[in-house]
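Posting this for the archive.
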Amino acid sequence: MSARVGADVKLPSPHRALKGTVEASWAEVLADTAAQGLDGVLLRTLYELSPTLDAGLLREVADAAAGQGLYLQLGVGKVNPYMTAELPEIRRLGGGSYLTGMERMIEAAAAIGCHELWTATGNFQAGLPGLHKNDRYRRDAPWADQMAATERLLLQLAPVLRDCGSHLNLETHEEIATPEVVRLVEAVGPDVIGITFDSANVYVHGETAEAAARRVAPYTRMCHLRDVALVPGPEALDRYLVPCGEGVIDWAEVLGVLLGANPDLHLTIEPAGPHQPAMQVWHDDPRWRAAHPDLDPLELDAVLDRVGAYEHHVRSFDRPDAASLRAGGLFTREEFLRRSAGHLRSVTAAGDHTQPTKEYIP
């Protein structure tokens, strides 16, 4: 049986909605997901689904998803104490304690049968200059301090995760390299911490999706899947998001590794909209090099080789060039999902991914 393919959805903040922003409700999101022929949804985050964690509402959402044959996954905010001030909603949930707010969300999700929970270790601030868009390079806190604080918070959350039989799944986000994610999992315990594999973010750390998948597969319990285009940019190498199968990733290899480790893994697509800023790979910047002690030079060379591979597709007129990517408007969110889902399903249907490459940790 082919893996189930779904969509990552960011629900509107109730605070934005109060300002008159018109957004889809959770019911519309579920209905649209089913109408697109997808198999499930990851809703980020729980406090935007229900700012009060209303048990009746959350049960209604879970029942509605099940009634439409959809898998339901949830996110519960971020776990880097150096940026939790950017998420006051979670502190309010905890009556002044961010830790208590996270614990309440984990328990609320478990009560409706959601035990695989998305989380991440930082933010991306598009309005800041250069490297400093990324929390890894924030001037007020060395990355090593952020990692140590994150590990301490995860250790504090471990008891409630064990009590609930749940996992916090750290995304391979733009601020954290995959060896660092793996070390956090192993330091806190794979019985409570897992990984959300984002196939596109790894490139900003000089990693390929294929090699990164091999590193994280034993602990991967959730996905954010999308492809990448790599093109020279005005400041550095630019990474753009494109539908799966339309970039530089070898999906047969990536899915073979991931599903070989966890045959029940849901393949959740994180779609991009018609306009997106580039994210840079600052491989020529000595600060970037110094900030990546785990960097494999051969893997970085493989990333740089993908620039030429993508350019070959451009010359063959089957990929948009750098100018088109910068201009945007190449696809809607719905087209991104449809094209990605079609490719992922064709890849999984063509191969047998049921033989584990390493013991999967339940």
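The two ends are 20 Å apart (CA to CA). The mean pLDDT is 92.
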